[in-house]
Amino acid sequence: MISVGIDIGSTATKAVVFDGEVRGHAMVPTGWDPREAGLRAFRESLAHAGLTEGKVEEVVGTGYGRISLPIFNRRVTEITCHARGAHHLHPDTRTVIDIGGQDSKLISLNPDGSVADFIMNDKCAAGTGRFLQAMAGILDVSLDELGDIANGAEPVSLSSMCTVFAESEVIGLLARGIGKGSLAAGIVNTIAQRIQGLAGRVPLVETITFTGGIAQNRSICMNIGTSLGVKLRVPASPQFVGALGAALIGTE
Ligand code: ADP
Fold first, then answer.
1. Which ligand 1 atom sits nearest the alpha carbon of residue 12?
2. Do domains 3-78+241-250 and 92-234 have the same CATH topology?
3. Residue ranges of the domains in the chain?
4. Residue 207 CA to ligand 1 centre (angstroms)
5. 3-state secondary structure string across 57-120
6. Which residues line ligand 1 (CB under 6 A)?
7. 3-78+241-250 to CATH, choices 3.40.190.10, 3.40.30.10, 3.30.420.40, 3.40.50.10490
8. CA 37 to chain centre
């Protein structure tokens, strides 16, 4: 049976076509029209799989924009989808760390892969992809470069968690001659501190699978793992784990 999972996130919309294995995928920017982004990702993922819409039996939506698309047979929270996707890729996963464009979450999994507990920060952009993008802009580096220059650098301590205040703080530190590497390492530490804060409610039990867009950046993953004192397992396509989970739920 062919199922398509579509994760309409705050920043990126991801689609996965699944029929026992992944047949196709697509990612488009969500932009200002989540409905249009969902449809585009759906069509592009089918084109990638070499399939037509008529062959699809289930379309499952997740992510913040899931309410906007009429083609969904089912809508499932991203908590359930990330847990399902992570458990499929790494069955020994007991905790999922997901950092997206505008939120971060910790999900605790039972050994059978069901959700035991979760905590989500979606009230402010601190420690999310948006925070990282703003900081990379100030340092005038790409997201990939930010991870690379943070590697091995002595992290500067940043007192501001809030994206707006952290921007002013980083600009001030740059003006005082603090190196970009130390600032980048400090920025990555701030993301780890944010996760540490969530871990007060949902403990970081290994094996920990790291999902979401930021997890694509190997240097940032390594630094976050070191700051948290844990090993992070990163799937091959971490940004697609929620969409994969939605597609898997469609086949059940
Ligand atoms: P959402 O589901 O909320 O749209 P995603 O999980 O798709 O979020 O992740 C989007 C975020 O991933 C972007 O905000 C961006 O900051 C981050 N991102 C994408 N590529 C990279 C990269 N190479 N390095 C670090 N962060 C990245």
1. 4
2. yes
3. 3-78+241-250, 92-234
4. 22
5. CEEEEECCCHHHCCCCCEECCHHHHHHHHHHHHCCCCCEEEEECCCCEEEEEECCCCCEEEEEE
6. 9-12, 63, 100-102, 129-130, 132-133, 143-144, 212-214, 216-217, 220, 239
7. 3.30.420.40
8. 18
pTM for the model: 0.94
Q: Which residues are CB-neighbours of 131 under 8 A, at least 6 positions away?
A: 125, 163, 166, 187, 190, 191
- Nearest 5 degrees, angle CA 218-CA 219-CA 220? 90
- 238/242 Cα distance (integer angstroms): 9
Where is 16: in which H helix or E strand?
Answer: strand 12-18
Nearest-CA residue for ligand 1 atom 27 is 214
pLDDT values of the chain reduced to their tens digit, one per residue, 252 residues: 999 999 999 999 999 999 999 999 999 999 999 999 999 999 999 999 999 999 999 999 999 888 888 888 899 999 999 999 999 999 999 999 999 999 999 999 999 999 999 999 877 778 899 999 999 999 999 999 999 999 889 999 888 777 778 888 999 999 999 999 999 999 998 899 889 889 988 999 999 999 999 999 988 898 899 888 999 999 999 999 999 999 999 999
Domain 92-234 is found in CATH 3.30.420.40: yes
C-alpha of residue 60 to centroid of ligand 1, in Å: 22
Distance between Cα 70 and ligand 1 center (Å): 26
